[in-house]
Amino acid sequence: GQASAPDYLTGLNPEQREAVETVDGPVLVLAGAGTGKTRVLTTRIAHILATNRAYPSQILAVTFTNKAAREMKERIGHLVGGAVEGMPWLGTFHSIGVKLLRRHAELVGLSSDFTILDTDDVVRLIKQIIQAEGLDDKRWPAKQFAQMIDGWKNKGLDPAQIPEGDARAFANGKGRELYAAYQARLKTLNACDFGDLLLHPIRMFKANPDVLKEYHQRFKYVLVDEYQDTNTAQYMWLRLLAQRPQGVPQNVCCVGDDDQSIYGWRGAEVDNILRFEKDFPGAKVIKLERNYRSTEHILGAAGYLIAHNEGRLGKTLFTDRVDPNDEKVVVHAAWDSEEEARAVGEEIEQLQRNQHPLNNMAILVRASFQMREFEDRFVTLGLNYRVIGGPRFYERMEIRDAMAYFRLICQPADDLAFERIVNTPKRGLGDTTIRALHDYARARDIPMLAAASDIIETDELKPKARKALFDVVMMFRRWGELLENTPHTELAEQVLEESGYTDMWKNDKSAEAPGRLDNLKELVRSMEAFESLRGFLEHVSLVMDVEQNENMDAVSIMTLHSAKGLEFETVFLPGWEEGLFPHQRALDEGGRSGLEEERRLAYVGITRAKRRCHIWFVSNRRIHGLWQSTMPSRFLDELPTTHVEVAEAETSYGGYGRNPYGQSRFDKQEPFQNNYTTPGWKRAQANKTDATRDNWGNRSGHSVERIGYGESGPKARTIDGE
Ligand code: ATP
Ligand code: MG
Questions:
Q1: Least distant ligand from the CA of 79
Q2: Quick one: which of 701, 10, 688, 597 has its CA closest to 331?
Q3: Per the annotation, does 156 bind a ligand?
Q4: Element (H, E) at 63
Q5: Neighbours of 303 (CB within 10 A)
Q6: ipTM for the assembly
Q7: Using 50, 70 and 90 to split pLDDT, how confident is the model at 259?
Q8: The whole model's pTM is what?
Q9: Binding residue per annotation — 570?
């Protein structure tokens, strides 16, 4: 009974408790954000341990990130009192895969000290294989093939299993052959790629039923968090480990939320949720509907938004936490991203003055280039921040490369910068040349760029290398001459073009390349605020000097994708504009399902907030060097006015001098896809007084039933009946 239940159970609601206590047999917890799915998993493990059903080493638990695994371990310790000595099988699919593979490497033809190749290694290897086949690797780029292989591996496909059409699509029908050759090459190198960390164990288990049986005996309980984002290979792996012969209970518990499936572009299959009941007959499906995280307004906004998706299992969410003092979700407009960052910074400082720790605040962006503006602003303000799930803006590879060019122009003695970019993009200046150059510079005690300038006059280098180096030296001479008299942003653009650096990424077929190009554009844009290239470089070194310390009180900045599973008191969601969010690429490549995945991402964003959620959009962004008017995200139209308000004109940093909402956006609007009749957030704005609208610099006097999206009111159209 309740009275005698251990502490860790008493706080749970009946459904959560059922999910925790149903330890025998398959369980699927399907529930919306913040309903305690992760908490159920953690408590379930604590319960299994506390009731001596299994040792820590007999529990297999999969989390989405390593950080989540560490946190879970810690919390289990709290729940059962005292440290849990080792949970060796708690981790991500990959970390558990490595562990399995190290133990049984020989069963798949590797030895246990195999190396794991990173993406660069993989591409280099594939390029060799393509060339060895006598194919032109310009026509058939290695990067592209690497991505195809990754896609096949996500689906759990060996060379023999890939669809005929896929095999034909690459290298005149040699796709299958090349894939097989790649796998063979990996084996000789005693190496594997990320996909193999899952596929090898699958192969190994299939070929060695006795080994699989051993693990069936070991893993008495299997648990998976963020189940909606598992891909096919992960699902196969899981099913192998969790399924038991008939009559033996399959103690597997998966928790997930179809509305938070945001990795479709990486091969995740929401359908795994539907397959669960088929593959694990008799599964108990538990729904959690009470949300413990967020206010009524935050839930209302998120729920209303996600209802615009068609492909949903459908869930309800409610909260008991209804407090008249709760703030609505607030939508803010800003002139441009600089003002957006300034406004968010002010808001954060305001909260800080009211004793809110920075640790409780997060900025969640759609694209990593958006971080730059916030990082710069926070450095100016002296506000601590940390970037989660990736490098800080100025630490990104492409930014460092570009900065190395700029540094070397301003400071020709910067050898580190020289070495970084002398052969980036590839110019045929290999290690031998660099070493010769290095020795030459050392012997004469001069910088490497100066040495290069000298050495090309000699015959120390082979003609090809000499010519390549000559070109580099000439480029830097030319840029050096331009330094004083050319506007620095122009020079920066010129450098990135003429060096071939931009082209290098334009020709790159990897998934990250477009994001890197965006970051480079943002870099050039960010220089505008400075007088000179030197001034800018100084600024960046100051930004980079700000320490990043785990324990300091700091605002978190991360992408929406990295925010999964996390929660914060206050969440800022900037950049809600068409083309950025929903992202144009997702729309172009994914059509309707791309849009729905973007909307799920918006749902994830809003539901990270416990108490405060502030959404921003700007009316101007600089795209391809030109200022362009942007349109507010369609997702803003999909928020309910009952839970959302539009911020009053924020004149302290406002003063736009014109209506920040820019032009009418109704031409492009899609019809609603659901049954809701309340028009979106625009109604709230329409109902505001003219006085408010005057603060936006809008002409007063036109009807408040209309929305003055255009600069002149009369052009605006009514919201209803459109
Ligand atoms: P997401 O879908 O975002 O991953 P989730 O379903 O995993 O969310 P949790 O992170 O487990 O939700 O829980 C959300 C918050 O609610 C946490 O702060 C958690 O401690 C709290 N919580 C969950 N269940 C309860 C409960 N029964 N009583 C009090 N607080 C709870
Ligand atoms: Mg969770």
A1: 1
A2: 688
A3: no
A4: none
A5: 22
A6: 0.99
A7: very high
A8: 0.80
A9: no
